Amino acid sequence: MSGGGGGGGGGGGGGSAPSRFADYFVICGLDTETGLEPDELSGENFEQTPLRRTFKSKVLARYPENVEWNPFDQDAVGMLCMPKGLAFKTQADPREPQFHAFIITREDGSRTFGFALTFYEEVTSKQICSAMQTLYHMHNAEYDVLHAPPADGRDQSSMEDGEDTPVTKLQRFNSYDISRDTLYVSKCVCLITPMSFMKACRSVLEQLHQAVTSPQPPPLPLESYIYNVLYEVPLPPPGRSLKFSGVYGPIICQRPSTNELPLFDFPVKEVFELLGVENVFQLFTCALLEFQILLYSQHYQRLMTVAETITALMFPFQWQHVYVPILPASLLHFLDAPVPYLMGLHSNGLDDRSKLELPQEANLCFVDIDNHFIELPEDLPQFPNKLEFVQEVSEILMAFGIPPEGNLHCSESASKLKRLRASELFSDKRNGNIAGSPLHSYELLKENETIARLQALVKRTGVSLEKLEVREDPSCNKDLKVQCDEEELRIYQLNIQIREVFANRFTQMFADYEVFVIQPSQDKESWFTNREQMQNFDKASFLSDQPEPYLPFLSRFLETQMFASFIDNKIMCHDDDDKDPVLRVFDSRVDKIRLLNVRTPTLRTSMYQKCTTVDEAEKAIELRLAKIDHTAIHPHLLDMKIGQGKYEPGFFPKLQSDVLSTGPASNKWTKRNAPAQWRRKDRQKQHTEHLRLDNDQRETKRMLVEKMGREAVELGHGEVNITGVEENTLIASLCDLLERIWSHGLQVKQGKSALWSHLLHYQDNRQRKLTSGSLSTSGILLDSERRKSDASSLMPPLRISLIQDMRHIQNIGEIKTDVGKARAWVRLSMEKKLLSRHLKQLLSDHELTKKLYKRYAFLRCDDEKEQFLYHLLSFNAVDYFCFTNVFTTILIPYHILIVPSKKLGGSMFTANPWICISGELGETQILQIPRNVLEMTFECQNLGKLTTVQIGHDNSGLYAKWLVEFVMVRNEITGHTYKFPCGRWLGKGMDDGSLERILVGELLTSQPEVDERPCRTPPLQQSPSVIRRLVTISPNNKPKLNTGQIQESIGEAVNGIVKHFHKPEKERGSLTLLLCGECGLVSALEQAFQHGFKSPRLFKNVFIWDFLEKAQTYYETLEQNEVVPEENWHTRARNFCRFVTAINNTPRNIGKDGKFQMLVCLGARDHLLHHWIALLADCPITAHMYEDVALIKDHTLVNSLIRVLQTLQEFNITLETSLVKGIDI
């Protein structure tokens, strides 16, 4: 035996470990002694012609009888070798051998692999042939009874189930005449192995079959080859290759090492050819989210290849549910299981999808492999970065000549042509045109200059900005002579390239998963016992770091069983030695990414990071195939009796069980504990790779600060929002950076988050000083300064307190880890624009910093620290909602202030007021306000950014009139303050008679602090404090606008709405403000209807709503008298009346202007405004109530107004609940 020792071994039925290549050789087929037994479980047997029916197959022989480590499961093997039982054919039918693999899963979850080759042998038993003839006579007689006998007799039996297949075709395939036809029956030879070396097993079986069918006998009896593969061929050790002999040629298999992706031997190429990239991605997503998946094909091997490929591409996650890639006919009831499953169903090639009766189809992913077709479950989220991911996979496929859309019906010549073109593309790709060009980290950083500056500041010297490797041209390793054929090598290469790209996606997506794992406080055993009640992952904090587009997929993926098991594995295997092999490989990849990020910290973005590990992985395989590590003993003559080993061509012989039932007495393979040596080497390598951040280089830091100054570009040009970089990823990058800085030069590492640990120390110090009373007055002042706000006199601003902000975070139950808490605190500080200030305060405790950090630590280098804090200030130029938008379920205290008019007797007010506050995430119940109390605090679930306030009263008491100037509401955690202008009366008989109003609010901006540098961006427009309609002015003597100004204001209002919908969803402001705010659509249309409105009598106000009600009455009487012009007009009038009636019938006490606002909002939502304007312009009531010069009477102006309003038709306007409460239309 060359190439040193193999794995451990074991003799015949004994042996303690599965170190042999194969455990069993099995033969299944027709048992001539029991004869033909129909297989009832396989479905509608008797409607079929006898040749089409299924009969029971038996395990005819197995060698050896049993092995300890893998007890033989006769039922499972029999069922999976021939899932549809025996098949009979005649000489007229095609009889090519068919290969398929299968899996047997034991109760403990461990797997054994089977590889079966099914071929046809002539039936020599006269009884069986006669039985088949008899069955035909019976079938024909039955058929003749059911169908009128046609002119041509015998073969009409073949017309099945009224299928319109030509008679002649059916008669050729499905008739049997004992005197004329030769009968064949299926037989199967099978290898059962501990590992899935599919290609090698296929080769063993095909060579054995070739030996039986070839005219010349093989060099040795078949027993010699079978004995060899069972007892003399070892499993290759990890990272090694093995060569052994088949009947006619060498067979090679290679096994990945412990730091490569696990063994996978099915051709990925076939899956992409059969389904196409898009379908593969959809199926992959369904599998990750644990939907029920049913594969459907008439080829068992296709079912197996698709199932195994999809589950292999999930690395490092593993399918945890029912997994039956080939579902035997007798187990069809499995499909009713109410659990996730991945199963393969054999189709007979005739029935179409509609014949399948499948339960729970809404949740099912159905894949018709042979027809390139997939049916998806409802509501399937998109895999993160799907477009770039598909692009990367497509490039690889095209390099191998596989069209991304699949290659189902491509001819031989076409694929040759593609291969030729592909070879050019392939070398081009390696020259760096597609994936290999060095990527500068500053290209990634362009999108946010502040982070770029901060990172430049903390970078270490000597690390180039370029990515570490550039893919090399494959021509340089052409001198490797691999020992397998070209096609096989291409399959290996394509497999590893695709798998590396998929694995890289998860490595990138979960690069920092470890810090969110919640380690159990108790010992492993008790943790395991209470596993169901325990949370193992801080999902809220992990998701808060993710780019917005990832969330629909990730939030569901984190709830799957496969993710929970992956994290459980992580908790159970703390040290490297007992780590699950898959987890070990994944963790080492994650460590590499994090090392790379320490060297070249890049901005965390949802920017797509291509795979860079392909070449290395490919080279490892090519090296193993070029230099074979082990060669097994050649097959040799066995000690067989004379006359044994003879065989008849075309028939698989009855093997000699005495020579095959036990292996050699001595074990020829020496056991080596190779993995231990390899592990030691890996560890040393990791240590040398580990980057030492402990070099004290003050000079370098200075240089870096200067360099950063040169590279810095001011943030804050253009719009005041974050474009280019998605908010979540920006904050996550900043948090990564802060953690890295706070970890540098630590005396002792405590907990997973260095920043949170420092904050906790600071909190303890303050507590101690407070209790001992030694806190200096300057400290108190520092901690209790207030943030200035333009509402300063009315609502005193929140106290600025680092400790208070920490307490807010400590009170959030959803955050389970220190890393999560640190990130939440950073988010809150960013939203409050206090991050720089808080960190400055934290670092002002010099004694604490000295205690925690070594002399050379970044946080103890004053110049760099100052510049660092200064750069952080530039984040204050942007309004972030990174805390509010992420922690959507927490309880938040809100403070309300109502400001009534000072002039007009607010103190005499006798009614009971109430208020209801709405935001982007929800609204409060109606809150009763105690009488004469104008300020109160209440707590409710996070409302998000606030949008409207509904305020009203119950009209009780003698003086139930209330004039409210405005309302203010403040979020007591983030300090955001909103102002809701009103300036109208609430009371019957006052103004428009309203008892409740809907106020639209805007966020107030805080004034910049004194020590902050001025920011170049203008602050957000402050909320209009002008009262919309002055109290003393009745609606009619309001300052009049001319028609030009009115048209302009309507144009601007509509334009604002159009712009709103053209922005990315995350950047849109409040639609309610655009509809009902100061310059909104309602206000603009109000101006249009006010124009030329006839002056009413003295002391009586007339409102637009009065006009609309009269118009409604007019149209209703018109309809009753049935004087209806055209149909179109009729529909518009009826619609208009329906809306006005519904608004008038609302139980709410909104006044006439409130009703007008509601009508405009509903009209905009249902795209009816332009119809109504046209309707009202032609209404006789308009003639009575408007002057001749009125805008509504000028046809040219009305037409232009209609055209402007028509532009709103293409937008799907969703109204906030508060605007349409009480209206069901």
Automatic annotation (TrEMBL):
Gene Ontology molecular-function annotations: guanyl-nucleotide exchange factor activity; small GTPase binding
Under CDD domains, the record lists: PLAT_RAB6IP1, RUN2_DENND5A
Gene Ontology, cellular component aspect: cytosol; membrane; trans-Golgi network
Sequence ranges assigned to domain UDENN in this UniProt record:
39-580
Q: Which residues form the RUN domain?
A: 725-888, 1072-1220
Q: Where is the signal peptide?
A: none
Q: Is Lyase a UniProt keyword of this protein? A: no
Q: Where is this region: Disordered?
A: 663-697
Q: Which InterPro entries match?
A: cDENN_dom, dDENN_dom, DEN5A/B, DENN_C, PLAT/LH2_dom, PLAT/LH2_dom_sf, PLAT_RAB6IP1, RUN2_DENND5A
Segments forming domain PLAT = 892-1000
Keyword annotations for this protein, in alphabetical order, are: Guanine-nucleotide releasing factor, Membrane, Repeat
Top-level division of the source organism's lineage: Eukaryota
Protein family (similarity comment)? Belongs to the RAB6IP1 family.
Extract the PANTHER family matched here. DENN DOMAIN-CONTAINING PROTEIN 5A, PINSTRIPE, ISOFORM A
Q: What is the protein's name according to its record?
A: DENN domain containing 5A
The protein's organism comes out as: Callithrix jacchus
Lineage of producing organism? Eukaryota, Metazoa, Chordata, Craniata, Vertebrata
